[in-house]
Design brief:
Helix content: 40-55%
Structural class: alpha+beta
Mean pLDDT: 77
InterPro entries: AK/P_DHK_N_sf, BCDHK/PDK_N, BCKD/PDK, HATPase_C_sf, HATPase_dom
Largest sheet: 5 strands, mixed
Low-confidence stretches: 1-37, 211-217, 310-320, 407-420, 426-431, 477-484
Pfam family, one: BCDHK_Adom3
EC number: 2.7.11.-
Radius of gyration: 22 Å
Number of helices: 19
Distance between the termini: 17 Å
Enzyme class: transferase
Subcellular location: Mitochondrion matrix
CATH superfamily of the largest domain: Histidine kinase-like ATPase, C-terminal domain
Strand order of the largest sheet: 3-5-8-10-9
Strand content: 5-15%
Order of helices and strands: HHHHHHHHHHHEEHEEHEEHEEHHHHEEH
CATH architecture of the largest domain: 2-Layer Sandwich
């Protein structure tokens, strides 16, 4: 089959996806702008939004993302991946649009919130020409992949822009409502980006598109953006070095880190998610340790396999047992509870709000990581607010300082806050807005994991991070390859 010429927009995006640490962002790239203008769009009507938003949303598992096989994919596998992506994204975008439209009008009118609403409308308009059809040729798959690259680019700074919009509109909406809405919107965004980025990565690591980049040659354990041989200790070491250097720049000292347990343990997960979570947890541990004058005391990190998921009977689910935790729509932002509160439907949820599934139908290995510090613990008055977005409690002076980008100490915009988050949100857009723990918890809970905090006031803090993996990846992916 003749080779298909790939639009340059896709190349710039997939390079950023595969090499996030070594290449700069390309938000303002003229290639991206020209590529976006070439996309075929269709006008989004209210009927389109209501019809798609009425469709049921089901929780996403890591197994869904690896089921198409291990790269390089065959042509049929690649087309199957594209059609799977197309089958689930339009409804998810429509849910987000409807959720934004249900906000109080004066909030939606804010330029920042309105921009995000327009971005979602734009992305849905690029998907509608593909809706209710099947991608059958490589030429169509290449054009669809350009749509995915545009979607990833368009929503790069969604959460930080929304946060600033809510900060400006804080007089017209309660802080708790902002927290609920952002938490839900943030979780939904995780899945949308992950689905799009997974297909982008599979596209460029598979035949017949493998002349651009052979990711599988350098990273044989990868299936798209998922590392099936992820070693948590390696992520911890990298994050500890990064946070340690910044800590030393700010305070002149850094704590040491001791890794124990099973440092050679591996499982399958999304590296960028784990990296973000560990970075945020270490930032808190390092800061507390140094400011408490305990920098000579090491931060202890214990890595242990998470018990396998053995129960498939919903009636036997024990909510106190993390090994039996299910994935539900609330964890993934699919319930739309927050937006319904603004329409007088408090307590109302979407038709799929109560759906929950096991991460896999068979046992799913995962990991537990404990981070223990001697930083004096969390005061009782602050312990109940550690999951809040701190910007929701800013006074007028703090809000003005943050909006203007001032590096004032009371906004928290210091070196330890200025670390970019996943999904494009960078240093200047996230610093000082208090995203760390709530965003980290969202990434942990998205696939059935979680974060638990135990604080001994006056002594220190233990944080327990649990993550579920993909499971028996070879058994998932190989049948797909054999059928082709």
């Amino acid at each position: 089959m003749a080779q298909v010429q790939r639009p340059l927009i896709i190349q710039s995006h997939i390079i950023r996806l595969c090499c996030p640490r070594t290449l700069p962002k390309t938000n303002s790239s003229p290639l991206v702008r020209r590529g976006s203008q070439r996309l075929h769009t269709r006008t989004v009507t209210d009927n389109d939004i209501s019809r798609l938003a009425s469709l049921p949303l089901h929780p996403l598992t890591l197994a869904d993302l690896v089921k198409h096989g291990r790269p390089p994919l065959t042509t049929q596998q690649l087309l199957t991946s594209a059609n799977f992506t197309l089958s689930i994204l339009p409804a998810r975008l429509a849910h987000r649009i409807q959720s934004l439209q249900n906000l109080p009008f004066i909030v939606v009118s804010n330029p920042h919130v309105s921009k995000i609403h327009s971005n979602y409308i734009h992305s849905l308009s690029t998907l509608l020409p593909w809706a209710e059809r099947e991608i059958k040729t490589l030429e169509e798959e290449v054009k669809f992949t350009e749509v995915m690259a545009d979607l990833v680019q368009t929503h790069a700074d969604t959460i930080s822009i929304l946060a600033r919009g809510f900060l400006e509109a804080r007089k017209y909406i309660q802080p708790k409502d902002v927290t609920h809405f952002l938490d839900e919107h943030l979780r939904a965004r995780i899945g949308t980006r992950l689905i799009a980025e997974q297909h982008l990565s599979l596209h460029f690591s598979s035949q017949p598109h493998n002349e651009v980049m052979h990711e599988t040659d350098e990273n044989p354990g990868y299936i798209g953006v998922i590392d099936t041989k992820l070693r948590p200790a390696t992520i911890v070491e990298h994050c500890a070095n990064t946070v340690g250097e910044i800590c030393e720049l700010k305070y002149g000292v850094r704590p040491t880190v001791n890794i124990n347990g099973e440092p050679d343990y591996t499982f399958a997960h999304v590296p960028v998610h784990l990296e973000y979570i560990i970075t945020e947890l270490l930032k808190n541990a390092f800061r507390a340790t140094v400011e408490n004058g305990m920098e000579r005391e090491p931060v202890e990190i214990t890595i242990a396999p998470l018990p396998e998921l053995v129960s498939e009977n919903p009636k036997s689910q024990d909510p106190e047992d993390p090994s039996k935790k299910r994935i539900d729509n609330a964890d993934q932002g699919n319930a739309d509870v927050a937006s319904h509160a603004f329409t007088g439907l408090q307590g109302t949820t979407s038709p799929t709000a109560d759906l929950n599934i096991l991460p896999l139908k068979h046992s799913t290995p995962g990991v537990t990581i404990r981070i223990r510090d001697r930083g004096g613990g969390i005061s009782p008055e602050n312990l109940g607010h550690i999951w809040d977005y701190s910007f929701t409690t800013f006074n007028d002076d703090q809000a003005s300082s943050t909006l203007s980008g001032s590096n004032s100490s009371h906004t928290g915009m210091d070196a330890l806050n200025a670390i970019s988050g996943p999904g494009g949100d960078g240093v200047h857009s996230l610093a000082g807005l208090g995203y760390g723990l709530p965003l980290g918890r969202a990434y942990a809970e998205y696939f059935g994991g979680g974060i638990a905090v135990q604080s001994l006031w006056g002594w220190g803090t233990d944080v327990y991070l649990s993550l579920r993996g993909v499971g028996r990846v070879d058994e998932i992916s190989q049948p797909e390859r054999k059928r082709n």
